[in-house]
Amino acid sequence: MAKTALQFRHNDREVAVFVDGGTSLLTALRDSVGDHSPKFGCGQGGCGACTVLIDGEAHLSCLTLAETVEGRAIQTADGLKNGAALHPLQAAFMENFAAQCGYCTPGMLMAAKALLDHNPQPTRQDVIDGIAGNICRCTGYEPIINAILAAAAGGGARRA
Amino acid sequence: MFELRKDIFADERDDNLKEIGKGTQRQDMLGHVTATSTYFNDHKLQGMLHLKVLRSPHSHARLRRIDLAEAERMPGVRRILRGADVPRNLNTLLSLINFGLDDEPTLAVDKVRYKGEPIVAVVADSEREAFEAMGKIRVDYEPLPAVFDVEEAVKPGAPVVNETYPKNTFTFHEKYDHQKLRFGDVERAFAASDHVLEQRYQMSPIEHAPTETNGSIAAPDTNGRYVVYTSTQALFFSLDTSAKILDVPSNKLHFIGGTVGGGFGGKVDTLTEPLAILGAMLTGRPVRYMFGREEEMQFGSPRGAERIFIKDGIRRDGRIMARQVRGYFDSGAYTRLSSYAVIKCVAHIPGPYTIPNVHADVFCVYTNRVPATAMRGFGVTAMDFALECQMDKLAHLVGMDPMEFRILNAYRDGDMKAHRRVAKNTALIECVQVAAEKAKWTLRDEFKRASSLRDGGGKRAEIPPTPRDPGAMAARPVTPAQQRTSYDRGLTPPEPSRAPPTPAPPPPAAAPASSHGATRFSSVFGRRR
Description:
The structure holds 2 protein chains of 2 kinds.
Chain A: E1 3-10, E2 13-20, H1 25-33, E3 51-54, E4 57-60, E5 73-75, H2 88-95, H3 105-118, H4 124-130, H5 141-153
Parallel strand pairs in A: 1-5
Antiparallel strand pairs in A: 1-2, 3-4, 3-5
Helix pairs in contact in A: 2-5
Chain B: H1 29-33, E1 49-55, E2 61-67, H2 69-72, E3 77-81, E4 111-112, E5 118-124, H3 127-134, E6 138-143, H4 150-153, E7 179-183, H5 186-192, E8 195-203, E9 215-220, E10 226-230, H6 235-246, E11 253-256, H7 273-283, E12 287-290, H8 293-299, E13 306-314, E14 320-332, H9 338-348, E15 357-366, H10 381-397, H11 402-409, H12 428-438, H13 445-448, H14 486-489, E16 521-522, E17 527-528
Parallel strand pairs in B: 1-12, 10-11, 14-15
Antiparallel strand pairs in B: 1-5, 2-4, 2-6, 3-5, 7-15, 8-13, 9-10, 9-12, 13-14, 16-17
Helix pairs in contact in B: 6-7, 11-12
């Protein structure tokens, strides 16, 4: 099958990959770039485990055609840390026990980052709306909401 | 009594634990928040192939002919697996503890017994090529009559779902078509009761829907071994099951797991590992077999549906004198773990209450539905739903407060349970008292003062005379109609009886001898050992 060349920024580094026609951004990130932080949960936009930021906006990478991100900036949970230091959201998730199986966590973190980048002081309802597209089947929503609010209160919106 | 050998590793053990009341961080939390926890699907191996299975569109059908000719010529196809390729193509999960007969093929051979049963597996260079080849497989089905209702399935003349169990019921203790519990004489107690309440309860199947779907990756290792990255919840259980199905010594398999993207019971059935390993054996390449979301939701085994009939005899003062339970667990087309669910369920009946006459028959029934399996308290959860609904209705029937009604009937230390074991460390009364307090629910003083440690034993510790069943397999008619209660209709409850309850007859001098610790009991086999 003919491959398409594709170049974009991935966590502040330029990457170039070849993809098949119809390949999703999720598959391109996981199989071609080698970033396994976005997870496959449903492949149909229902669970949010694959959430990444495209030019700062939260997107479902499983429903995004890889070819549409040419020249754009992708951020994933793998790029949240600043060197060895955890992002405030990551620290808040740890402190608030906001993960059980951990499979939804990368998507939750990116949905939360998109929220706080746009709305640094969200209300509890803003947080609930902000992660409404992300499913946690261990049903740990309360600690997740608390973690995001804690990150906001402690300056989580500052870019790490 | 089981004792810990504390002399071993004594210098590494700190018995002075002070963990309760403070948070302790999970070992895997840092991996989770940095997205570096490695799930099975985060392994990308050189030359990895992809496996997909063709599933039956029929709930029950004979397989007349399977034509793979066109599919095998499709681009990217490396190997197509059929039932004949599976070394031991019949298994039951609990055969590892010698419980039940092998009844489920890895790939269907002569017939399919539920919609979604795997028939053929395609191993190809990409998932897309596997799907495209699957579209070229021609299967000639002869649809058969199907049965989807547990009570229909146990009627004479019902379609035989699974030939291993031609009566559509699992065989317990090598002779019974159900698991039973007999304690006292419920019929006599019903006749002597002031009220008898019979109700029907139905629990639906529930899909676990883990965010990570079931899957595994198997790859040839050196020395003829295979390494398997898997989402299983039960690593060694899945390893042994795979070794049995593939007829290889278990030391040929190296299973790596532990990081599971949600399981809840839905990842113990070893649904993907045997085929992934077989694919790796036959192609010499790493093979990945991961469920899509539709497969997970429709064909990943759910919590089993249960139909439960409860008939209780109760005195005007609120004491339950008899409880009769008849349950039908919908196992789907194969046993998996439903037989064990039944054993657990019957061990739980009649709930945490001291009832002097108890009678239970619970069936593990085969239907043409997706096989059921474990899920968080399975076997007990649905029964508790039924029992506690029944408790509310009974309380209403005699005009008692539902919390006080539970305290009145709760088991206490020293009581004889229906399984002929003495109750100890009971705490239902205290749980209800705390729940009432937290809910700001008013309890009368005598119920606030009740304790699990008092008023148990004595006559409550006696094993009543228990009649034998007339015929071991005597079928009892099921009462079809739901008895209506004022609780259902939301009518005014009867005048509450404010007479003080009589929780227990006076205890005699000596406590009954307990057999605890003298023998161990196998809950699965129902035998002492």
